[in-house]
Structure formats: structure tokens, C-alpha cells
What we know:
- The structure holds 2 protein chains of 2 kinds.
- By secondary structure, chain A is an alpha+beta fold.
- Chain A contains 8 helices and 20 strands.
- Chain A has helices at 51-59, 101-111, 116-129, 145-157, 175-192, 203-209, 227-232, 237-242; strands at 8-18, 24-35, 40-44, 66-71, 74-75, 86-89, 163-167, 195-200, 212-217, 220-225, 247-257, 260-265, 268-273, 281-286, 291-295, 304-313, 317-324, 327-334, 347-352, 358-361.
- By secondary structure, chain B is mainly alpha-helical.
- In chain B, a hairpin with a 2-residue loop joins strand 1 (51-52) and strand 2 (55-56).
Amino acid sequence: xxxxxxxxxxxxxxxxxxxxxxxxxxxxxxxxxxxxxxxxxxxxxxxxxxxxxxxxxxxxxxxxxxxxxxxxxxxxxxxxxxxxxxxxxxxxxxxxxxxxxxxxxxxxxxxxxxxxxxxxxxxxxxxxxxxxxxxxxxxxxxxxxxxxxxxxxxxxxxxxxxxxxxxxxxxxxxxxxxxxxxxxxxxxxxxxxxxxxxxxxxxxxxxxxxxxxxxxxxxxxxxxxxxxxxxxxxxxxxxxxxxxxxxxxxxxxxxxxxxxxxxxxxxxxxxxxxxxxxxxxxxxxxxxxxxxxxxxxxxxxxxxxxxxxxxxxxxxxxxxxxxxxxxxxxxxxxxxxxxxxxxxxxxxxxxxxxxxxxxxxx
Amino acid sequence: xxxxxxxxxxxxxxxxxxxxxxxxxxxxxxxxxxxxxxxxxxxxxxxxxxxxxxxxxxxxxxxxxxxxxxxxxxxxxxxxxxxxxxxxxxxxxxxxxxxxxxxxxxxxxxxxxxxxxxxxxxxxxxxxxxxxxxxxxxxxxxxxxxxxxxxxxxxxxxxxxxxxxxxxxxxxxxxxxxxxxxxxxxxxxxxxxxxxxxxxxxxxxxxxxxxxxxxxxxxxxxxxxxxxxxxxxxxxxxxxxxxxxxxxxxxxxxxxxxxxxxxxxxxxxxxxxxxxxxxxxxxxxxxxxxxxxxxxxxxxxxxxxxxxxxxxxxxxxxxxxxxxxxxxxxxxxxxxxxxxxxxxxxxxxxxxxxxxxxxxxxxxxxxxxxxxxxxxxxxxxxxxxxxxxxxxxxxxxxxxxxxxxxxxxxxxxxxxxxxxxxxxxxxxxxxxxxxxxxxxxxxxxxxxxxxxxxxxxxxxxxxxxxxxxxxxxxxxxxxxxxxxxxxxxxxxxxxxxxxxxxxxxxxxxxxxxxxxxxxxxxxxxxxxxxxxxxxxxxxxxxxxxxxxxxxxxxxxxxx
Lengths: 362, 559
């Protein structure tokens, strides 16, 4: 029987650090978030945006200057760290080097003097869930990075916490391992149904793991939404450029009538629904994959003329940098058996997939 | 389904045992202990020294300083201290350089001999110097037919203190040389600097704070030394001996106390000056890499010189110990060289009690200092208790204070009710512990600093109180450092004379004062035998204890 999952609510969290010279450096400003029971939400943002501070405050390792934290409507802000039922998976795993894998995972039970039989059952099940039952007697120093990470994971969820917190748990693993482990992590969380908050600066991780993503910047949430919303309808240039690559081109609304707006950018005109058009002067966000390239001479092809300046072959795709007037536009296409379709210096026409264009305030 | 914890096993509902207040409750206890046994004795000593007609006044001290003979004594003390500091630092640096940067044979032998004086009482050096170079010394009298007292005085003291204390400076410089980032010296070599140049332009400047530390260390030891000045002082009186004579010889307590304050002043000043200096010049001397593979010079001239230096020093030290051994095993050193077990038997018979008491109390004090030291280290390094800076300061004060002064302070402060401790074992243990506490704290703090705080946080996150984290996570990881600290403090305690001379009693006697009185009486053989027995016992404890305690106490597993 699963424990009933709890909803997390963070209201108006604020935290500033005191610098040695007496000034204070705000790390988290007015952070508000609601995570539904069983939901997996990622805090995504660059270094210094405050995401780790939020996590540590939730765990009780930092004291906020203001704000409240509620689990299922009950405030836990006054509870000391060791009384909160929150599991934290550390970036460096924080495994106890003098205890075996088994003892590490059993620690929360030992603290509470749980009966040995119960410990054996619980810890055994946890180790089995992460595939480490063979290594129970090993010491952390004898494990690989991936194995250590799994121990850290087992240690956190064996307590059946109300909330699971992950502080960039995969950043110390190599790329291939990261992809493999993150999948396991998500499956585990789904099976347990525990509410989870995940911190990372890696947008691939965020996109693949999350039910929702909260993009953070300078201590605040810039935008929160599903991965699709974040990617296809970013609320700001910061979000757009932090998650994936994007071309941001200046545009001007020429005509706006009958629910349709006509926008002009770089001598190219396209139409969008009026409600997707925020102002008269806009920034048009074009993802590289929303551009189709064709030879310049092709007739009747509406698009923008440009010259290929740089080409980057990535194996699965080719990235072109095309000079159009003052802009350098990035476009990608699938490589599909060849290194490049256009040579450097070639004249090309860029066609845009209108539905994928996203408009922002300038 | 695999992975789902069994039904009904809600860990979160299990009661959390052990409330967080247990550890916090120990804090005021520690504050009281420090106030009672560090702050109070010192304050009492100062009040005894600055008292006339029942009022607080600096007049007695001023009068003393006005007296030219006192000023001479003070000058002697400072001059001797400076000489030992300078000569000892140079010697220690060269020795450490030879051991870590020069390719030569027999390093193990040289290292062992250089460290031998650290486990024997300094008074042993005086003993063997007298046997060798005294009025009827083996070298001076028997070999050269002289009847000279050149040993007694400045030069004899200098030699005795150098031999006794340079090993500590050597250990310090050795660790510093080892900790230097090897790539800096390698870079200098690739740019054309030969080994001497590298030493002068790269290594020594980086080690400058260490050199200052070594000098300070030797100064402190020289100030604190009582045994050598009493036996070899001659016409060169120094403060520690004068304090002893004032109290024990003339029973002039105010004068003794005043002299103690006069000794305390330069010692404390030097200590705090060094502390300030060290804070401002923290170079990258202990680099993160701490490469073990420092370049070792193969230049012949350097190798020969280094070998000669180490051999000479080692032989001198070897001769010292061989002499003591000879004194202990021969009928009458200097006159009758028949081998006899007489002295050993006499020592074991007469001084059995002192030996047991010394070793036993030393062990107890080491344990007490370790426990309190770990607690203070935790409060200072891992908690946010108010006033922990002051606690740290007071607990470390004994570092700045010569042993004679501490011993005197204890002897005077606990001579009255309600704390009548003189004549008990308690006062000896407390004196030992108080002197050992700074070292216990330092080794514990250093070990704690190596443990990533995420371990503390993980433990807390899983429901452990600070006390449980300390017990289950931190202490197991710092055990080897704690043991090293305990061994060091044990050795210091059982070999000191100055700190205990004022607190021993008929009920509780310690070995070093017994050796001193035997030397005074002329029972050289028995004094030598007793010294040898003490050294052997110390070696047994040092090497036996880690073995007895097991692997967990020997290996660091910080991970």
C-alpha cells in the first residue's frame, strides 16, 4: 500500500546571504510554488539562480528570512531539519564512508531504533529496487559513481518521506550514465508516487524527467509549465534561450484585424492568431528545427534569403549558421547519411514553420 | 512489485529517540570546567603576583623588575630562548630538507634518532651531558683530562635544550616540506635553478610562516624548561629555575608568582604575535595536491653535506642515549664500568609507585583531554553555540603559557577550600589535561574540517539529532586523529617536569621530579635507570595502544 502523497506549497520564500563585507546577497526572492501530490517538478536555472537554496530551505538546512512551507496544508517551516519527513539526495551523495551500503541505507532506521527484522526487510527491498542487493556489504569507497548514486537514492526513499528532494544528483556522472540513471530515478519515483522536487541546470534532464518545470532566474521563478509549454511557448527570452537554442528576431505587426495579425520580420511576412501577438513591436522566437532550408534559386518559395557562414556536423544532425542581413540565424537539419547539404558560402532560402513561431514582448 | 516498501512499515511514524538537548546541555558544563580549571588558576596567579597589603597593585612586579638581578635573569631567559629558537630552527630546517629533498641512504635511522628526544624527559639530556661533559665527564675528564665546568651555564643549557627540543621543530618542518606543492619546485628546476636556489627562492619563502612557527615553538619550550636549568644552570640563572627556587627553596610565594607573571608576559606576547602573523600570511604551503613525489637532489656536494649533517646530529643524540644506558647499567659511571642490574632493581623498587602513577595518570589525562577536546572541537567547528569563540580562546590559552607557570598557578589556586585539590591525583590529572587540551582540540578540529558537511546534513536529513550525528558519523571518522592527539598528550604529560613540580605530593609522586631529586643527591645510576624505564614504558604505550584498539583507530577513512 502506498503512502498517500502530499502536496507541497511554498509561499513567498525569501533568503539572503550575509557577505563578509556586511552587505547581503539575495539568493531567493519571493519564491512561490505549488507541487501537486505525486508530481515531479524540476527547478531549472543557471548557477546562482537560487534553486539549491530553495531546496536546502525546504530540507531545513537553511533558514528562510521570510515565507512559509506547507505539506498538505500544514506548515513545516518551524520544524528543525531532523524532524521533517523529507528525503534529500545530495549532489556528492554524502554516503558515510565508514558504513557499508546496507548500514548507509539503514541509517534512518538505526536512528529510530527500529527492530532488526524490519530493518532487514525494508533495506533489502530498497536495495533490490535500485539493483544493489549484491553489494550490500561493500563500502562506498568500493563503488562506482553510478552505484554510489543509487545508494544515495535508496537511502532517501527508504524512509518513505512526504517529499523527495534531488540536488543535481546526476551531475557527477558521465553523460551516458546520466541518461540511464535518470530514467531509473523517474520510474522509481512514479512507482512510489512520492511528491518530488528536482534541481538541475541541465535542460535535457529537466525536459525528460518532469511533469512541470519551474525556470528560475535571480532568485525568482521566471516561468512554470509543462516541458512542452516551456519549450514551445516560453514567457521570456531568458527562458527561451536557457532551454534549447533559439533565434530571436525583431518583428513588427503590420496589420491586426479579424482575429488575425500579420507580422513582418526580415522581409518575411506571416500570420498568427491575434491572441498570440502581445504588442506592436515583437521578438519572434524561432527554434532552429522550425526552419527549412532550400536552395536560393527555388521558385515560389516564400522565405528569407541568406548565405551559409558556418557548418557544424554533429553526427545525427547538421547545424548551419546563415547570415541574413544583420542577423546570424541558426538552423538545424537531420544529417541523414551526409555531412552537409549546403557548403559554406552557399546561397539558401530559409522557410519558417509559422505555427512554431512564438512571439514575445520586446 | 519490487521496490515498494512493505505495507504497514511507515518509518516516519517510528519515534525519534534522543532529543537534541543532550549535546547542548554539555556546553555549559564545558564552560564551567574551563572557567574553573583554566581561567581561575591564571586569574588567581595574577592576583597573587599583583597584591600588596591586600590590594591589587603592580608594585611587587615593578619592584622586581627594578632589581638589576631580576633584569639579568629576564635577559638570560630571553637570550637563551632566542638562541635556541634560531639555532634550532636552522638545524630543524636543514635536517628536514635533507630528509625530504636529498637522495641519501639511512634516512630511516636518522629520522628515528631525531625523534627519540620527543619521547624522553628533557631532563635526560642534562643527565647525559653531565655524564659526558661534566666535571668528571667521560669526554672532558677521562678523555681530555680536564676538570672543567664549561658545561654549566649558557652553552650547556643551549646544548641541552637544542637536543631536547629541536626534534619538535624538525617534525613541524618535515610536515611542511612534505606538504609543499611539488610542482612549484619542479617548475623552478625546469627554469634552471639548482637545488640550493630552489630552497632559497621557492621553498623557504613559502615556508616562512612555518619557520616563524618553529621559532615560536622552540622559544616556548625554552621558556618552559625547568629540569635543564636546575641541573645545568650554573651561573646562568633563568626565570623558570628562579620561580622554582622562590617557591620551593625560599617559600616566597608572592615573589614566585611575580616572577611567573614576568615569564608569562613575553611568552604570551610571542604567542599572540605569531597567531596574528600566521593569519595574515597563509600561503599555499599546504597545497591540495601535497604531492609525495618531491624532486630529490642528486648533486653530490649537497648529498655529502646533508649526510654529514644528519650523521653528526644523529650520532650526538645516539651518544646521549647510549650514555644514559651506560649510566644505568654500570656500577658508577666515570669510575667503575662493571655491568650491574643494581640501578634498575633499585629504580623498580623505590620508584615503582611513581612509575605506575605517572603512566596511569598520563593515560587518564589523555583520555579526559580527548573527550573534552572532541566536544569543544565540535562546538567550535560544527555548531553555532554562542560564545564558542571565547571557549576556543580559553581552552587554547595553555599553549601560550610556560609549564612552570601553569604548574605554579595550579599549586596556588587549589590550595584552599572549597577546591582543595593539592596532594590529590585529581590535580595532577587536571594539570595534565589542561596542558593537553589545546592539542586535543587542534587535532580534532583538523580532522573535522576534512569531513564534508554534506555528511552532517545527510545524517540530519535522515532524522538524527546533532548528538547522534556526532556519535555515529563524525567520531568514527576522526578516531585516528583523536588517537594521535592522545598519544602526543600522553607523551608530553609523562615527560614534563615544569608543570608538575608544584603539584606532586607524598601520596602522588611522578617520575620526572624523582629523577630530579636523585640527580640532586648524586644517585646518577638510579636516575639513569629510571629514565630508561620511563622511555621504555612510553614506547610500549605509544606502540601498543593502537594495536590494542584495533583498525578503526588507526586508519583514516574520510573518503
